[in-house]
Amino acid sequence: MMSDLSDRPAKFFSRLQALAEPLDGLDLIKLARDEIGSSNLALVSSFGAEAAVLLALVAEIDPAIAVIFLETHKHFPETIEYRDQLVARLGLTNLVVVEPEPSQVTATDPNGILWRTSVDGCCAIRKVAPLAKALQPYRAWFNGRKRYQAETRAAIPKVELDGSRLKFNPLAEWDRARIAAEFTRRSLPHHPLVPYGYLSIGCAPCTTAVEPGSDPRAGRWATPQGQNLKIECGIHI
User: Is the domain defined by 9-187 classed in CATH 3.40.50.620?
Assistant: First the structure.
């Protein structure tokens, strides 16, 4: 196990890339655990439409791995209820709820409506900055991005460098059918908003339902005219 990535990180990363290439799902999570160590790993989850699958896989490997949830104070109430339901059902024992810095919110979004004039600014104080701080104790993190979700995600690798930290994408190759099959196989509950056409669920002011067959992320940061103001919140850029 190599827990300190500062020791020849380029060489370690190249080796890890080679080991990760034929793996996905449980096997890729096991690789991360064996190479990095559970205490140095975190899963960042939105507890959105497909989040239950990765949460279940990580719980199977080690339910004590930290699960970071960004409490933006803009979530649907259903998301918070779903989060608590999944944590209990999967036996996750290390939920880390991360909130924006109160002084930043007071200074830049005192009325809570910054999303109306600057979606980037709102994401920056409620998601990007809090996550950067929350990840400091960890050497690597898991996320649930998948190549099928959008053109901008079509080439994401199994493992990548995120600054000085590693980022694992255990479900990168999974498609919608495989995700659905895993929900069924594990009898996982769906997010309450999925039946209403919400296929990618973030903060309530910036999430809408999508038409059948549409890009799952078409409802994120979309205007009434159908234009998307942005494509990522910023934590993956």
Answer: yes
Tokens for 33, please give them. Answer: 């655990």
pLDDT tens, 136-147?
A: 999 999 999 888
Q: Position of tokens 């080439």?
A: 155
List the beta bridge partners of residue 97.
69
Residue 227 has a CB neighbour count (10 Å cut-off) of: 8
Instruction: Let me know the angle formed at the C-alpha of 98 by 168 and 176, rounded to the nearest 5 degrees.
Output: 40
Helix (H) or strand (E) holding 30: helix 25-36
| Domain residue spans of the chain | 9-187
Instruction: Catalogue the active-site residues.
Output: 233
How many alpha carbons fall within 13 Å on the CB side of residue 7? Answer: 5
Could you read off the pLDDT of 161-179 as tens digits, one per residue? 888 899 999 999 999 999 9
Q: What is the spatial order of strands in the sheet that 95-98 belongs to?
A: 95-98, 66-70, 41-44, 140-142, 165-168, 159-162
Q: Is the dihedral of CA 234, 128, 137, 25 positive or negative?
A: negative
Cα 1 from chain centroid (whole Å):
25
